[in-house]
Design a protein that fits this description.
33% of the residues are buried. Helix 1 runs antiparallel to helix 2. It is built from 16 helices and no strands. The two termini are 33 Å apart. The chain has 396 residues and is mainly alpha-helical.
Length: 396
């Protein structure tokens, strides 16, 4: 009886997600092979549906397996599912992460202050860095334009890679910060993914809550590394891509990383160990940028054009005056974003505080509040003065 109820509940939740998120995609693909057209369903996607659906699946599975006990009060379950700080853009949390915090949230001045700082860091990432980077991405990543160049597409992909990192990690930071203000410690979702030296390491650092979900609730139950390893790997990466959007480019993007991880386990990983850190970092950056091409272009023809242009196979100029202008206008922001995407600033701040306790106390006592106020003022000015404020993860 319990198993039947569990399977039914999982099926209902996946069915709701499938209807709202994938019905139109499936109808369009069926229509492409049928001699007649099925009406396209005009369905509005509920914001954050993938996140709270996955959290419900986590909860149902953990209760069914006995990992956690179902709370007696339905209010606790409703709070877990509808906890607004992370509801729209993650991270995906599990009931076991916050079940004790629901019973006894610890709201302290120190935690509230830390939450404000974390929220401001996320706000700065999103509004000051991601939005400003994104303003040039659409112009540069247009392979059909007559002004498209080899270096232009490469630069556009680099800007988009930084934009989506600061956009998504910024939202995660704001969610974690809001959680701290209310006395909840949410799990981290990013760990400087652009310092990765392989596809596998990149996904251990990028959207870690999603990777953990697919590992614990799909990959391992299918058999993990023990049996049908190759099937399990590609099922997970197909689902990872499909989770990001109802479009073939996301499926290709997911399978692309699945193939790379398989090849790294097969032989590339051993080769990278011998090649050294520098070569490994170059490899990691290269494969990541190629992956973002598939993520950015929902039109597969445009993605292929972009890739051909990047490798000089689309009869485009190497560079032009327009690109030089874009590069000069974005150079400072580009360099700041690169540095901010690494642990360098955090490491420097920690070393300064450790080597000079008085300086560290001053940085925490005066520097951090000043920085928070500065971020708030700059972000407010930018939000008021610009209409460009995309929500890249709206489709999730």
């Amino acid at each position: 009886m319990a198993k039947t109820m569990y399977i039914t509940a999982i099926a209902v939740n996946i069915g709701i997600l499938g209807f709202f998120k994938y019905a139109g995609f499936l109808v369009d693909n069926v229509n492409s092979i049928l001699p007649f057209d099925i009406p396209h369903p005009e369905v509005t996607l509920p914001i954050g549906i993938s996140f709270f659906t996955f959290e419900i699946i986590c909860y149902l599975t953990d209760v069914y397996k006995g990992t956690i006990k179902a709370p007696r009060s339905p209010k606790k379950l409703l709070l877990y599912v509808s906890f607004f700080p992370h509801l729209v853009a993650g991270p995906i949390i599990r009931y076991s992460d916050i079940q004790h915090q629901i019973d006894n949230p610890k709201v302290t001045m120190a935690g509230f202050s830390e939450g404000i700082t974390r929220f401001m860091i996320g706000l700065g990432k999103k509004v000051i860095i991601a939005n400003l980077l994104g303003e040039s991405v659409a112009q540069l990543l247009n392979p059909s334009s007559g002004s498209a160049t080899v270096l232009g597409i490469w630069f556009g992909v680099c800007l988009f890679a930084l934009q989506i990192y600061f956009d998504f990690s910024g939202y995660s930071d704001m969610a974690i910060g809001l959680g701290k203000m209310f006395g909840f410690n949410l799990r981290e979702n990013f760990n400087y993914p652009y310092v990765s030296k392989s596809a596998g390491e990149f996904w251990r650092r990028w959207n870690m809550s999603l990777g953990g979900f697919f590992r614990d609730y799909v990959y391992i139950p299918l058999g993990g590394n023990r049996r049908f390893y190759l099937r399990n790997l590609f099922v997970v990466w197909f689902l990872t891509g499909f989770w990001h959007g109802a479009s073939w480019n996301f499926i290709i993007w997911g399978l692309y990383f699945g193939l790379l991880i398989y090849l790294e386990r097969l032989f590339i990983g051993k080769w990278l160990e011998k090649a050294g850190a520098v070569v490994s970092h170059i490899y990691g950056t290269f494969i990541m940028l190629i992956g973002w091409v598939w993520f950015y272009f929902t039109d597969l023809h445009e993605a292929i054009k972009a890739l051909l242009t990047m490798f000089g196979l689309n009869h485009r100029d190497f560079s032009n005056l327009e690109l030089q202008i874009y590069f000069k206008e974005n150079l400072l922001l580009f360099l700041v974003a690169i540095i901010a995407s690494t642990p360098l600033m955090k490491w420097t701040f920690t070393r300064m505080a450790e080597s000079n306790p008085k300086l560290g106390a001053g940085l925490h006592g005066i520097g951090v509040p000043v920085l928070n106020i500065a971020i708030l003022i700059i972000a407010t000015i930018l939000l008021i003065g610009s209409t460009y404020n995309p929500f890249l993860y709206y489709r999730f």
